[in-house]
Every structure is written in structure tokens, then in C-alpha cells.
Design a protein that fits this description.
By secondary structure, this protein is α+β, with helices and mostly antiparallel strands. About 25% of the residues lie in helices and about 20% in strands. It has two helices and five strands; from the N terminus they run H-H-E-E-E-E-E. Strands 2-1-5 form a three-stranded antiparallel beta sheet, with no helix packed on it. Strands 3-4 form a two-stranded antiparallel ribbon. The N and C termini lie far apart (about 60 Å). The model has no long low-confidence stretch (mean pLDDT about 80).
Length: about 90
Amino acid sequence: MRQTLATIACLFLLACASDPASEPATAPQAEPVRVPKPDLTDACQLRSCVCVKRDVPFFIEAETRDAVWSSTGEISCPEGFDLRREDQL
């Protein structure tokens, strides 16, 4: 008897969960907020900076490359890399 009641209760809950009318309306997804990258030009003149590959999981050591200085004194990284101070790796 208990098993029958439990089965009926589970079937009832499944039927309620699959009813589209019972699901709340979802709000439209907002675009993620992009935080502007800090300008590290001045900081990299005093401390060592490197370019770190972006979108690498935290448990994998990210690939690094040397930062490139332009003739105007601006520092940049290759495409797909972000500039970071070496002491913050």
C-alpha cells in the first residue's frame, strides 16, 4: 500500500513539473557586464609584467608570453592574451 501511494505521489509530481503552464516565465538574459581592463602601462614600467592566455580554467597553469612595448611607450599583448603583473600570477 505504501509503495503504491509513493508511486502515485511521484507520478503526480512529475506531471506537475512537466506542465508548461506551471513554470514561471523566464526573464530575457542580459548581456554580461564587461569590466574595462586596467591600464598597466605605468605599473609595468616599475614591475615586471607578462601576457597570460585568457579563458584558461583555474586548475591549469596558463601559458605566458612576454609583453610587447611599442615605440610610443605603450605595452600590449598578442591576441588572446591579457596583461598581468608577474607578481599577481
